[in-house]
Structure formats: structure tokens, C-alpha cells
Amino acid sequence: CEKIVIMDIPVCNVTMREAIGQIQQFTKGDKVHLVFTPNPEIIMTARENERLSSILNKADLVVPDGIGVVIASKFLRGNTLKERVAGYDMVQNTMKEAVSNGYKYYFLGSKPGIANKAAEEMRKLYPGIQIVGTHDGYFKPEESERIIEAINASGANILLVALGAPKQEIWIEENKDKLTHIRVAIGVGGSLDVMAG
Ligand code: UDP
């Protein structure tokens, strides 16, 4: 994507439509793609967090969540971001097209019970949607291995990771090579809580 550097962090200059088109392309590929949706707070954190900054720099798609990111871009003459692409809305938009695109989701994160409730609510909202597994976000580092096996066995191709920033970004980066069937891993912050209602 065409990148615009906001506070030292490159963000893709994409519209919502372009972002969900990218995700669709990613699912047709043969490797995992990393998608992040930093808000201004995360961008500020990344400036002081080498690890997070490096992860965002290497990601396949980084969308400007939060109007503050778009406004910040307006101060960079000639480099205004096209629009805000909120992570929550972007994920909802993929769900609208999930059945026809063969998307299979795995929800990882939030407090026990929330990912499951989010899955139930999404099944009501998007009939036929395949949410093939869930796991809460309060696990020990040594449990990651077992969770990854479950993700791989589920047949999911889209993984939503809601562990908060920068925990979710680091978890995705550390485990990306073990996610054999996932084609898109998205850091979604508090989105599962919102979906659960
Ligand atoms: N979360 C989690 N495991 C953790 C820490 C947080 O699953 O170890 C979940 C938390 O329950 C919430 C989500 O991460 O659903 C996002 O948390 P927060 O709102 O703090 O992060 P942000 O949206 O600011 O990235």
C-alpha cells in the first residue's frame, strides 16, 4: 500500500473499501498477513517502543483507526490520509462478505466468556458466518502453543486477536510462523467486547 508516515509510524493510505479488498486478497495468498489498526495512542506508544514500532513497520496492512491519525496526516502537506478506517468497522465489513468469501474466523482474546458471546452475536447478525473457534485472552505464555494448535485445527483463515495493544501485536508477531492455516491475523483491541454487547 501507499504509506504515509505519521509520528514515525507508516500507515497505509487506504479507504475502507480498499482495506477490505486487501484483506480479501490476503485470504487468497499462501502465507499469513499481519493487519493492525493503530489509534493515536498506539502510535504514540510505538514511538517509544522499539518492538511495537518494528512490528508496525513490517506489517502488511496498517490502517488509520481514529480520526486523530487522519488529522495528524493533514499537517503533512500533500500527504493527507484518504479516510479513517476504524478497526471495528473494518472487521464488521469483512463479516458482511464472509460467507461469499469463505472466511472462517477464530476469536482470541478478552475475558473468559466474551469471545464466545461475541461469536454468538455475530452469528445472529451475519447468518451463515463461520466462526470456527474462540479462546479467552487470559492465558499463560506456555499455553500459547496449545492455543495455536487449536487455531490451526479449526481451519480458520482469519484470526482476530484482542489482547490490547501492544500485547496483541507482539503475540501475533511472535507466533505468525506457527499459524499454518491463518491468512490474516488482525489486532482488534476491544472489538470482541463491543461485539459481545
Ligand atoms: N485483554 C486480554 N488479555 C490481556 C489483556 C487484555 O484478553 O492480557 C483484552 C481485554 O479483556 C479487552 C481487550 O484485550 O477485551 C482490549 O483491552 P484494552 O481495552 O485494554 O486495549 P485497547 O483497546 O486499548 O488496545
Please tell me about this protein's structure.
With 197 residues, the chain is an alpha/beta fold. It has a single domain (30-61, 87-196), classed as Rossmann fold, CATH 3.40.50. The protein contains ten helices and eight strands. The strands form two sheets. Strands 4-3-8-7-5-6 form a six-stranded parallel beta sheet, with helices on both faces. A two-stranded antiparallel sheet has the order 1-2. Helix 1 packs across helix 5 and helix 2 (40-48) packs across helix 3. The protein binds uridine-5'-diphosphate. Residues 109-111, 137-138, 162-165, 167, 189-190, 192-193 line the site of uridine-5'-diphosphate.
Helices and strands in order:
Elements: E1 3-6, E2 9-12, H1 16-27, E3 33-36, H2 40-48, H3 50-58, E4 61-62, H4 67-74, H5 87-96, H6 98-101, E5 104-109, H7 114-125, E6 130-135, H8 144-154, E7 158-162, H9 167-175, E8 184-187, H10 191-196
Parallel strand pairs: 3-4, 3-8, 5-6, 5-7, 7-8
Antiparallel strand pairs: 1-2
Helix pairs in contact: 1-5, 2-3
The protein binds uridine-5'-diphosphate.
- State the helical fraction: 40-55%
CATH C-level class: Alpha Beta
**Unreliable stretches:** none
What overall form do the CA principal axes indicate? Answer: globular
- What CATH architecture label applies? 3-Layer(aba) Sandwich
What is the averaged pLDDT score? 95
Instruction: Kindly name the structural category.
Output: alpha/beta
How many helical elements?
10
**H/E topology pattern:** EEHEHHEHHHEHEHEHEH
Main beta sheet: 6 strands, parallel
How many discrete domains?
1
Query: Strand order within the widest sheet?
Result: 4-3-8-7-5-6
Would you count the extended β strands for me?
Answer: 8
Q: How much of the sequence is in beta strands?
A: 15-25%
* CATH topology term: Rossmann fold
Q: Which compounds are bound in this model?
A: uridine-5'-diphosphate
